[in-house]
Design brief:
Strand content of chain A: 15-25%
Shape of chain A: elongated
Order of helices and strands of chain A: HHEEHEEEEHH
Distance between the termini of chain A: 64 Å
Number of strands of chain A: 6
Shape of chain B: elongated
Radius of gyration of chain B: 33 Å
Strand content of chain B: 5-15%
Number of helices of chain A: 5
Largest interface: A-B, 91 and 76 residues
Strand order of the largest sheet of chain A: 1-2-6-5-4-3
Largest sheet of chain A: 6 strands, antiparallel
Oligomer: heterodimer
Helix content of chain B: 25-40%
Order of helices and strands of chain B: HHHEEEEEHHH
Strand order of the largest sheet of chain B: 3-2-1-4-5
Structural class of chain B: alpha+beta
Distance between the termini of chain B: 119 Å
Largest sheet of chain B: 5 strands, mixed
Chain lengths: 145, 272
Amino acid sequence: MSRLRTASIPLLIGGVIAVIALLLLVGGLSSCGSSVKGYVRDHYDRAGTRNGAELYRSGDRVDEVVKDITGAWKPADRITDPGGVFLRYSDTFLAVRPRTGGGTDIEVDDPERGYAHWYPFVGGWFGTYSGRGEGFRGGGPGSGK
Amino acid sequence: MSGPSRLAALLAVAALLLLPGGAAAQTATTAPPTTTQPEITAAQAGPGVLLDAADRVELAQSLAEATEESEICFGYVAQLDNAGAVSQDVVSSAGPNVRAATGPSCPKGAVELQVRLEYSCSSCESSDEASWSVVSNVAGVPPSTIKRRLEDLTGLGGGDLLGDKDDQALRNAAAALPLAVDGAVVEPAAPSADSAAPNGDRLTGSPGSDWLRENWLRVGIGVVLLLIALPFLLVGIGLLVARRRRARRAAGGTDPPPADDPPSDDPRPTSS
């Protein structure tokens, strides 16, 4: 009986740890293949396109929408401005802006085109910036100061 | 306005004007703003404790535009204690080096982000520290609500103000102030129709995998736990197998002897 117990204890400990590990791995791997673009598409109302970007709408405040999106998908970089919040992902650029009269507009773009569209706001923070005549500023995600 | 309300408003204004560093302030002036359009160059503004001069001017202009539309003044005060050497940086919709305050140009009040940074000396045991708070006398929105909204908008934590992008964290928090206040009707940012940035400017840096950024901790912990579980499982299985083998042998079972057992009781004759 004591030998059975001796064998069972490491098995029990190992089994519990392995189950927790598998739950964590399955939880993480289940979101593999999805994206922030899909998240916005699934959670907000599509309102057409603008300059090639997909436009979505919400009746919530900008801070609520930003919290919702960044809670689901953490951005690589973000810039805020009194006129909106700009989020950078690996293959997506999001512009989250207040709507006149209430609610929020969400524009989903590809990174390069989004950078061009919102250059006056994100220039120098997400990439190079010559708009102010002072050359390079910032460096985007992954580059320190 | 009733007596208690007026007293509360006066106290709020007094709190707004109270410098976090008291007599330690070096660069700020507390004169009420006379205009929301700062006419100041980067060279005149000078660098702040985190932001460079040009960014301070640019931020002041953005906040000034928000003030024009909302009649609320916005700004930040950042106080840095660098191993005992204290300096202060102020930017508001009234311009660099001017506190956000109530006045003729901000009749609906003012919102100020107050940041305190402490850098310890390199030989000290204590670590760097950062904290921030919001002071506001705008009616209808408590400072705690503005602070929560700022956290949602910027993801700002104390560690961000000590990291590689501390300047960006401070700028983001200050620029988000108008978005965090009810009734601050800010003209939404308008996109350019250009499909390429001017002058060959482009995105830099690599954002990395969105999935990994979101799940690296969970997957990492899962892998580590699996590696921890593996020896436990192997030992447990080994003990179980050995126990069964011994049980069979004890019962006169048919289990062949292990290969490393001495062949002393082998009944077969030797051929030497």
